[in-house]
Amino acid sequence: MRAVVLEEPGRRTRVEELQLEAPHQGEVSVRITASGVCHSDLHVRDGDWQRPGPIALGHEGAGIVEEVGPGVDPALLGRQVALSWYYPCLRCRNCQAGRQWLCSDTPALRHRTSDGTTRLRRADGQAVISYLAIGTMAERTVVPLEAAIPIADAVNPEVAALIGCCVSTGVGAVLKTAEVPAGASVVVFGLGGVGLSVVMGAVVAGAARIVAVDRVAEKLDRAIDLGATHSVLATDAEATHRAIRDATGGGPDFAFEAIGLPATIEQAVACLPSGGTAVLVGLTRFGARASFEVFPFVDGSRRILGSNYGFAVAAIDFPRYAALHLAGRLPIEKLVEARIGLDDVEDAFDRMRRGERLRRIIVP
Q1: Chosen CATH of 2-165+311-362 out of 1.10.3720.10, 3.40.640.10, 3.40.50.10300, 3.90.180.10
Q2: E strands along the chain, which residues?
Q3: pTM for the structure as a whole
Q4: Which of 123, 187, 231, 269 is the most buried (most CB within 10 A)?
């Protein structure tokens, strides 16, 4: 099978022919039908996040179960699954408390399966690990059962793939992390796949005002199409803040930062009125810091929330978002900008660096 492999951070990826072992105990083999190109992959590719290599990239994917390992119900064969990049151990304190997005013992962060190994090999026998243990930029992958979440066949594979990362991250930040109430005002900084998913989540939540902010006019148009009520073309910070205040009647109840840049994190905090909440969704480079003026923050009882993976419990939330999509309430298909092949990943990364960050979907 073919896969996109990064030898070490900062180098170009290569599409390689790899050997894929059969699934072990508690694992399934999945034929990938769609894989998103996410900014987290670019962070790894460019060395913002140091990861060991060689590593098969990709963590936003869907596919069909082709083989099951010992201990797995054969009824899963032939089922469509969305893949979760943070599969839970189900044993640690956080998992037992229902906070699987905070699992403290997931092997996913070691980019290996639960037994500490990998199912990928080069022809010479060298092991190749899978990013977050699922490595979706490939024709096939072997993943732990807990990472393979059945999704209704009526859901398009591209939509199922996006549910596995950007949709759960963005929609969940609204519905689960912030628990945005109906009638609230919301501003969203950054309109990539995650930011646009925040917009969709705000629509589902019944937010009265949804203000989309970005430097790219085309993305603002897409946000309006997805339900944003106002758009702000970001220029200098003061002009942007003034436009946000005007659109929200003095400042938003919730400000979502979906880029992962210190400057926009600081803007999200600065635009809050008294009682407002900043929800940090975008992941920064390692070591990045942001700051805010403390007195007005405390005096105004403002809040900052961190939202990892939209507080996803994948086995529950993936089917929930799929059902909302099938009901017409989450038009996830509108996030897809283009369909590409495995050999086009470096071009997709170049487009991301230029800010063209709507989702490109690999269709192996």
Answers
A1: 3.90.180.10
A2: 2-6, 14-17, 19-20, 27-36, 55-56, 61-68, 80-83, 120-121, 127-130, 140-144, 148-150, 185-189, 209-214, 230-233, 254-257, 277-280, 303-306, 336-340, 359-362
A3: 0.95
A4: 187
